[in-house]
Write a structure and sequence with these properties.
By secondary structure, the protein is α/β, with parallel strands linked by helices. It has helices at about 1-45, 60-75, 90-105, 120-130, 155-165, 185-200, 220-230, 240-255, 270-280, 290-305, 340, 350; strands at about 50-55, 80-85, 110, 130-135, 145-150, 170-175, 205-210, 235-240, 260-265, 285, 315, 320-325, 330. It has twelve helices and 13 strands. The radius of gyration is 30 Å and the shape is elongated.
Length: about 350
C-alpha cells in the first residue's frame, strides 16, 4: 500500500511539473509576441516619413504658386511628405483645413495666414497638439509660432521708396498697399515711411493718399488710380505688389500715362518683369523664393526631429518675441533684370522679352 501511495504522489508531482512547464511556455511565448509587436510598431514609427502640412491663405497671386511648387519639391527631396491646402482668402476655410491637417498626424504646420490675427486660432490648435508651427512669409500675430520665416519686408518698403526718389526729387506720390490683414503691408509701410518722411516734412514730397486694397485686388488699385487721375496729377505710385501695380498701370494707360508715371511693386511676377523691360513699370522687388522655400523645408525637418534652429533674431508678434529668419530682397530694374531674375532662372529670358523681341 505504501508504494501505491508513493506512486500517486510521484504522478501528482509530475503532472504539476508538466503544468508549470506549460504555463511557463505559454507566458514566455506571449511575452515574445508582445515584444515582437512593440518592436514592429517602433520600427514602423521610425520608418514613417516626417509629415508636413502646408496651409496657404491664397494661390491667387503668381508668387504663391511658385512657393507651393518649390516647397513641395524641397520637402520631398529631404525624404518627407507634404500635404498642401489652399484657403482661397477665407479665414474659416483655413481654420478647417488646419484641423484636417492635424487629423492627418502632421509633425509640422507651415502656414501662410490669410489674416494676421484670425490665423492665431489655427496656430493654437496645432500647438495644443504638440505640432511645431512655421509662419511662412506672413507673420501670425499673438500666436508664439516656433519661427517666422520671410524676406525683410521693411527693406522691401525702403527699396520701393528709394527707387522712386531716384526718379523724382519732388512731386505727388500715391500709395496702394495690400490689405491691412497682412502684416507684411505694415512692415512695408514702415520701410517706405522711413525713407519718405524726411522729404514729406520739408515739403518736397506729397503723399496724396494711402489706400489698402482688400485681398490684393488689382481692380481696387485700378479704381483708386482712375478716381484720383480725374482730379489731380500723380508723379509716382508705390504699389503693394505687382498685381496691384498691374491695376495701377491699366488705369494709367487709360490716361496715356503708362511709362510716364513711376510705378514700383514687388514679387517679380512674369507680367511685371515684362512691363519692366517694356518700360511701363520701373521696378519690382525680387524675392528669391527658392531660398525661402529651401530654408522652410530644412527648418521643418529640424523642428520635426527636435533640433534647435539656433536663430538669434526675434520679432514681436504683439504678445511674444518669436524667432525671425529674414532673407534679403533685391531691387530689380531694366538695367539688372538679366543678372538677377533671369540669371537665377526665376523667369526665362524669352518669356520676359517676348513682347519686344
Amino acid at each position: 500500500m505504501r508504494w501505491k501511495k508513493i506512486l500517486s504522489i510521484a504522478i501528482v508531482i509530475s503532472l504539476l511539473i508538466i503544468l508549470l512547464l506549460l504555463v511557463y511556455l505559454i507566458v514566455t511565448n506571449y511575452q515574445l509576441k508582445l515584444t515582437n509587436i512593440f518592436d514592429k510598431e517602433g520600427a514602423n514609427k521610425a520608418d514613417d516619413p516626417i509629415k508636413i502640412g502646408f496651409s496657404l491663405g491664397t494661390l491667387k497671386e503668381e508668387r504663391w504658386i511658385k512657393d507651393r511648387d518649390i516647397l513641395m519639391a524641397k520637402v520631398k527631396e529631404l525624404g518627407a511628405e507634404i500635404i498642401v491646402l489652399n484657403a482661397n482668402n477665407d479665414d474659416q476655410d483655413q481654420l478647417k483645413q488646419v484641423k484636417y491637417l492635424l487629423e492627418q498626424d502632421i509633425d509640422v504646420l507651415i502656414i501662410v495666414p490669410n489674416d494676421l490675427k484670425k490665423a492665431a486660432d489655427a496656430v493654437e490648435l496645432a500647438k495644443n497638439q504638440g505640432v511645431k508651427v512655421i509662419s511662412y512669409d506672413r507673420l501670425v500675430l499673438n500666436s508664439d509660432v516656433d519661427v517666422y520665416l520671410s524676406f525683410d519686408n521693411v527693406q522691401v518698403g525702403e527699396l520701393m521708396a528709394k527707387h522712386v526718389l531716384t526718379k523724382i526729387v519732388e512731386g505727388n506720390i500715391l500709395i496702394v498697399n495690400g490689405p491691412e490683414s497682412d502684416h507684411n503691408t505694415i512692415m512695408i509701410k514702415e520701410g517706405y515711411d522711413k525713407i519718405l518722411n524726411p522729404l514729406i516734412r520739408n515739403g518736397n514730397i506729397n503723399v496724396v493718399n494711402e489706400e489698402w486694397a482688400p485681398n490684393w485686388l488689382k481692380e481696387y488699385a485700378f479704381e483708386v488710380v482712375d478716381n484720383y487721375l480725374q482730379e489731380g496729377q500723380i508723379d509716382a505710385v508705390i504699389a503693394g505688389n505687382d498685381g496691384l501695380a498691374d491695376g495701377v498701370i491699366q488705369a494709367l494707360s487709360e490716361y496715356r500715362l503708362a511709362g510716364q508715371t513711376i510705378v514700383v511693386g514687388q514679387d517679380a511676377d512674369l507680367a511685371a518683369s515684362q512691363r519692366i523691360v517694356e518700360g511701363t513699370q520701373d521696378m519690382t522687388v525680387y524675392k528669391p523664393i527658392e531660398k525661402l522655400a529651401d530654408a522652410a523645408a530644412k527648418m521643418a525637418i529640424k523642428l520635426a526631429i527636435g533640433e534647435n534652429l539656433e536663430i538669434a533674431d526675434t520679432i514681436y508678434d504683439g504678445k511674444y518675441y518669436v524667432p525671425y529668419y529674414a532673407l534679403e530682397p533685391i531691387a530689380v530694374t531694366k538695367e539688372n533684370i538679366d543678372s538677377t531674375i533671369i540669371k537665377d532662372g526665376f523667369h526665362l529670358r524669352n518669356a520676359i522679352y517676348r513682347n519686344i523681341e
